[in-house]
Amino acid sequence: MTDRSSYRLPAEWEPQAGVLIAWPHAGTDWAERLAEVETTYVALAAAVTRFEPLYIVVAGTELREHARLAIERAGADMSRVHFIELPYDDTWLRDSGPITLTGPDGVLLNDYRFTGWGGKFGAEQDDALIAGLLERGVLAGLPHRRIDWALEGGGIESDGRGTILTTWKCLNQRHPDLSRETMTDTLATTLHADRVLWLEHGYLEGDDTDAHIDTLARFSEDGGIVYQACDDAGDPHFEELGRMASELAELRSPGGKPYVLHPLPWARPILDEGRRLAASYANYLIVNGAVLVPAYGDRADAEAARIIGMAHPGREVVQVPCRPLIWQNGSLHCITMQLPAAIAA
User: Fold this and answer.
1) What domain of life does the native source organism fall in (predicted)?
2) How many CB atoms lie within 10 A of CB 313?
C-alpha cells in the first residue's frame, strides 16, 4: 500500500482529467434568474470542452436533456461531455466537490464535511455529493476518506509544492473553538502539506463564504501570487485589500524569496437592487492549456485577463461572462472543481 504521507494537493495548473460542475435548475437558488445564469454555464461548457472533459451533475433526465441541447447548440465538444444524475442543494461544486490529493500510485479523495458555509444554507444533499459520485461509479475504486471537519475547496489554495494559503476569517468562522495551531495541524495533516500560510485581511462585499481565498489571492505558475487589488481610495474595500496586499508582500516562497505579486484591476461597483456584488477577477479557473477568466462587462475585464495570462504563461486566455453568477455571491472558480489527471490513470 502507498505511504499516504507521499500524497500532496496538486496546483490547479497541473494536468487534469476534467472539470466537474452542477447544472442550475428551478429547485436551486437560481430559480428566479435561471435563464440568465444558464448563459454563463453554457459559455463555460463550450470553453472547457475545447480543452478537456466536462462532467455535469444534473438532477434528473429532463434537466440532462435540457442541458445537453443548450450546450450542443453553443458548439461544445459533446464527445467530452459526461452527465451524472444526482440530487444537490446548490451548484457551488468548488466547495462540495472532492479535494483530490495525488501521489506516486494514484489519488486520494478527501471528503470534508460541507456545512453550507457555516450553516448559512441547507447542505445535506451537497454534503453527500462525493458519496453519490462514488455510488454512480464516477470515482469508483479510488481511495476515499471522509473527514469530519468543515472545509470548502474555495477556502484553500495550493502551490503543488506543499504550501497551503488560506484566510483566518473563514476557518475561524467554521471552527471558532479551535486555535490557529490546531487548525494549521489539521490542514497540514489532511492535505499532507509542509506549511500553511494565513491571511488576516481581505474581504469582498457580497461574499457569503467569509473570505474564501479563491476570491482574493491565487498562486500562479510563474511562482507568484495573483491577487484582487483595489485602487479606488473612495471604495470601502480600499483599506482592507491594501492591508492584504501588504501581508502578501511579507510572505516567502519555500525557497525563502518574496513572491512575485500580480495585482488585479478593480471592477466598478456592481449593484443589484442596492446590494453590492462580489466581482472578483481572482476567481478564475485553470484548465489544460488555458485559463478561463471571469468577465463582468466592465472596462477592467481586458486588463484582468492580460495580467492573469501573464501569470500563467503559455496558456490561452478565455473570458467567460460571469456577471449573472455574482448575483448569488460567487463566480467562475466557485462553480467548478477540477479533477487531477491521475484520476483517469
Assistant:
1) Bacteria
2) 9
Place of cell 482574493: 216
Rounded distance, CA 209 to CA 173, Å? 10
> How would DSSP label each residue in 106-169?
EEEEEEEE--HHHHTS--HHHHTHHHHHHHTTSSTTS-EEEEEEE--GGG-EE-SSSEEEEEHH
Question: What SS3 class is residue 318?
Answer: strand
First to last CA, the chain: 17
Residue 255: Cβ within 10 Å count:
7
Cβ of 206: how many Cβ atoms within 10 Å? 21
* Angle at the Cα of 193 from the Cα atoms of 189 and 199, rounded to 5 degrees: 105
Residue 50, classed as helix, strand or coil, is: coil
Tens digits of residue pLDDT in 5-33: 689 999 999 999 999 999 999 999 999 99
Number of domain units in the chain: 1
Length of the chain: 345
CA 87 – CA 77 distance, rounded (Å): 25
Give whole-number Cα distances, 254 to 10, 211, 226, in Å.
Answer: 15, 24, 17
Q: What is the CATH number of the domain that holds 152?
A: 3.75.10.10
Q: Mind listing the pLDDT tens digit for each residue in 72-128?
A: 999 999 999 999 999 999 999 999 999 999 998 889 999 999 999 999 999 999 999
Confidence (pTM)? 0.97
- Cell numbers representing residue 136 in the block: 454512480
Domain span at residue 311 reads 4-344
